[in-house]
Amino acid sequence: MGAYILRRLLLMIPTLLGIMAISFIVIQFAPGGPVEQVIAGLQGQGGGATDRVSGGGGDFGSSQSGGDSGYRGAQGLDPAFIARLEQQFGFDKPPLERFGLMLWNYIRFDFGESYFRSISVWELILEKLPVSISLGLWITLLSYLISIPLGIRKALKDGSAFDVWTSAIVIVAYAIPGFLFAVLLIVLFAGGSFYDWFPLRGLLSDGIRGDWCAPWSDAFDASRCVSQTIPDYFWHLTLPLISLALSAFATTTLLTKNSFLDEIRKQYVTTARAKGLTERQVLYGHVFRNAMLIIVAGFPGAFISAFFAGSLLIETIFSLDGLGLLGFESIYQRDYPVVFATLYIFSLIGLFTALISDLTYTWIDPRIDFERREV
User: Fold this and answer.
1) Angle at Cα 157 formed by Cα 152 and Cα 161, nearest 5°?
2) Interatomic CA distance for residues 233 and 316, integer angstroms
3) In this structure, which CATH number among 3.40.50.1220, 3.40.1380.20, 1.10.3720.10, 3.30.9.10 belongs to the domain 122-372?
4) What is the per-residue pLDDT for 165?
5) What phi, psi does 233 have (nearest 5°)?
6) Which stretches does the entry tag as region Disordered (predicted)?
7) pTM assigned to the model
């Protein structure tokens, strides 16, 4: 197993290099880079992109002459100003040199600073991380806690009325877009048109963030902090999690059901029953491990999707400032340090999650031996 793990770790290097290289090449051809964003802001065509430049660049934009530039909309700006912009953003170097420098920094987990937020990328990611961890962790846990028992029950009751109507509910729930259901929940329960039961912003209410919940404060009270913070935390997460969970468990439920059906019909199950084992012993002592292999195989994709990609619209609708919203805004603003840093981190986590999934295979079924498989 050690040799297999080492091979997988070594294969992560070219995989990660390929991901970053392809993304870097695509970015080179994408119109409207950070220099263009600043120019648009100076010309009154955009907002927010010039804050850091005007604050830290001295007389940037103060000299305007009839200079020419290769940037669209740069007419009337001093060429020296454009050159200083390119130098500030690192575009005065050839693309290959910039890519090599980026890789060297990322190997050391040095992601630099955001172009337009005047904050280090690490601080920015850590600031948004609690929201994404909350959504991703709880939706994955909730999805599996619902899907696996429901899928097993449907397999045991295959063809019954329970199986039919639960399948109908699961399929309808899967067909409803999460963001549309989120809007409906807001209208019904968050002060839209009917009830005002749930909050619409953040993970905690403003009053919860007092000195009594700060460990470094003299007024810190752990029992009060826990008793008030945890209920408030889940109170804020209720509607977003319901919106995400609506369609999250459909695929896993049907996958669990079909996997258990395939195993239940095999010869070893008949043999186990003939030996006098109870149905529970057959199901959880023999069938469960074999049937769960395919569920484990889908875990990395489900986890990564829920953690990083699945919550963008939900974060926007419920004003949850997480990594999904950060990534979207960074792409829109052409904040390349944030875009590449999040891509690098997400890719690393995805690759390691896939490896952990393979190792879980061997834990569930010791007969699986990756050492004998050609990578």
Assistant:
1) 130
2) 18
3) 1.10.3720.10
4) 93
5) -60, -50
6) 49-69
7) 0.71
